[in-house]
Description:
mainly beta; seven-stranded mixed β-sheet; four-stranded antiparallel β-sheet; globular
Amino acid sequence: QAQLLESGGGSVQAGGSLRLSCAAGSYTYGRYWMGWFRQAPGKEREGVAVIYTAGVSAHYADDVKGRFTISQDRAKRTVYLQMNSLKPEDTAMYYCAGSNFYLANARRLNPDDYSYWGQGTQVTVSR
């Protein structure tokens, strides 16, 4: 069974919206941090938004604050990323990830501190 399963990517024009979903597979949901990371060609993977699945805390990268919202449905073992006002610079492969420890504040958007990963879903934003 896959660790995490992403869906919802696609191609949209600038200003449009998408909602990504990440369903837990073999990953044990509801204990630690889960979230979204993205990687554009030739660039390092970066944190976008993460949520503490045992509570309500969330963190966002500066360039998505006010545009993206992360949420969860504990009964469905699923984390969502609502992306509004999309820009061409948001174009990337988006990955869902989960941690296996409670993370200190400085580590929560660091992809190196996440052990469980999905296969990714492509988001493309055109002008």
